[in-house]
Amino acid sequence: MDNQTDANKENEDSQKGIPFSRKLCYAIGGMPYEMTITVKVFFMQIFLLDVVKMEAFYASLILFLGRAWDAVTDPLVGYAVSKSGRTRIGKLIPWIVFTMPLGVLSYIMLWYTPQDTMSPAFSFSWYFIWCCVFDTFISCHHVPYSSLNMFLGGDEKDRDSATAYRMGVEVFATLAASAIQGQIVGVHHAKRTHTCSLQNNTEELSGNYTDKLTDISEIALQNTRTAYLIAAIVMGILYLICCLVLFFGVKEQVAPLSNLDSIKVPYLTGIKMVVRHTPYVRLVFGFLFSSLAFQVNVGNFALFCTHAAHLGSYFQHFILITLASATISVPMWQTLLVRIGKKTTIFLGLSIYIPALVEIIVSKSSLTTLIIMSVLSGISLASIFLLPWSMLPDVVDDFKVKNPSFLDLEPLFYSCYVFFNKFGGGLSVGISTLVLHFVGYIPGACKHNSEVIYALWILFAPVPLGLLLIGMVIFYFYPINEEQRQKIQEALRNIGTEPNSKEEELGL
Questions:
Q1: How far apart are CA 299 and CA 293, in angstroms?
Q2: For this UniProt entry, which segments traverse the membrane (predicted)?
Q3: Per the count of CB atoms within 10 A, which of 10, 296, 487, 505 is most buried?
């Protein structure tokens, strides 16, 4: 009887919309994932290659297999979350809060260098294990957090508004993470770049001067390793604070046609139902190829700026320009999606990225060129941050209308959505690093051959451009436009008021 009373109260609350404080606390709860993943995307490759001095082949295995493991854990965590029962503090939030300490610890250990000199086997094992452990616990945070959007209360407009808050804060989180990481480790990368420049200019000299430069380079390397550990500790503290804000500021509500109970559908049946839903498949693959375009680009950003454009001391500034542009652009895309619809807005947003990539392809990589590219890519990046996540609840609602007997599958939808994105991201960065291995990339070297420079250029612009165009073609065939979305919401309301609806079966 008490459970029925609580459910009735939550349903009444959900009709009142989502309070601003709940939206804000919900948005802050997504910052840990974006901060840690941003740092991994921008800095993990150069950390393994130039700071740990790991062979490119082993680094590619860690980057690919680690992301592949991360991707595989998402559907499993999603199903585990779906099967778990509801507690006094909810069903989703306990997963976020109780796995937080282990997530923080594993993230710090991922950036810790246990020895000055490590064998290839030990180095690979250390970073691969901690990468997999961290990715497991961040999945335990991100999968239930993503699903929480469906359980904040309110209607579809409230959910879209909450998504906009979330994406705005998450883009800010990427900016903050890059700024913090860049300020802590960027100065040390700049010093090493300067030392390399001196070594390249004095290759014919020998004796004490060359030995002195070598000693300076080793000291700079040790300082860089320490800086990465300090940055990881700072990120861990922010991770903790954001989870506490989510815990104290958000209370789960009952979603339409849902009782937030443990699902009864077998795992494989649920997965099969999800991946056979046509709008979901097209949204997933459109998001996959579009996000891959950004991931391949930013994954090679640091190496391209350092070794191809010879602007290594500026790369953290390019990152800040990109993410600042993205942060400013989120409200613009939110306004446009309300006025012209989500499908039209995603096309417009992705199109802005095309001139930036073409500019890199046809012109030399000067400081001005990279600044312009950073601004345009940031504006476009904001659309890929916001739009697909705003479109996903529409797909879930469409599934509910067409399959009213299959309820409470939201965690599976969100976890599979993240799975394809992460797996594709792991594939892109793993293949990128493997390509560098085959063209002769030397870890920690100050100068590379022309094949390495050419490969970095290909990975930085032409490949992302091709992936982006594929994503836009898939989005063209995405079936839920603004008119169809309105029909789905009307059908959902009709199902919710039928005499034999799920809510009345549950006594709600």
A1: 10
A2: 92-112, 124-143, 227-250, 283-303, 315-333, 345-362, 369-392, 412-442, 454-478
A3: 296
Whether 461 maps to a domain, the answer reads: yes
Q: Assign residue 310 a region: left if phi > 0, alpha if psi is -120 to 50, beta otherwise?
A: left
DSSP string, 264-323: -S-HHHHHHHHHT-HHHHHHHHHHHHHHHHHHHHHHTHHHIIIIISS-GGGHHHHHHHHH
Task: Decide: pTM greater than 0.70.
Answer: no
The total of other beta-carbon atoms located within 10 Å of residue 473's CB is 11
- Among the listed residues 79, 38, 380, the one whose alpha carbon sits nearest the alpha carbon of residue 231: 38
The pair of three-digit structure tokens given for residue 258, joined into one six-digit string = 């849902």
CA-nearest of 362, 383, 390, 358 to 373 is: 358
* pLDDT single digits (tens) 422-467: 777 667 777 787 888 888 888 767 778 888 888 888 888 899 999 9
Is the pLDDT confidence value at 47 over 60?
A: yes
What is the C-alpha end-to-end distance of the chain, expressed in Å?
A: 11
Please give the tally of structural domains in the chain.
1
Distance CA 420, CA 285 (A): 8
Query: Which DSSP state fits 142?
Result: H
Type of residue found at 434 = L
- Per the CB < 8 A criterion, the answer to whether 457 and 308 are in contact is yes
**42-80: burial string, b at 16+ Cβ within 10 Å, e else:** bbbbbbbbbbbbbbbebbbbbbbebbbbbbbbbbebbbb
Asked if residue 277 is part of any domain, the answer here is yes
Domain residue limits at 392? 10-499
Q: Is the separation of the CB atoms in 436 and 455 below 8 Å?
A: yes
Residue-wise pLDDT for 5-22, tens only, equals 444 444 444 456 788 888
CATH number at residue 205: 1.20.1250.20
DSSP state of 477: T
HSE-CB of 104 using CA atoms within 13 angstroms: 17
Instruction: Tell me whether residue 504 is in a domain.
Output: no
Q: What amino acid is encoded at 500 in this protein? A: N
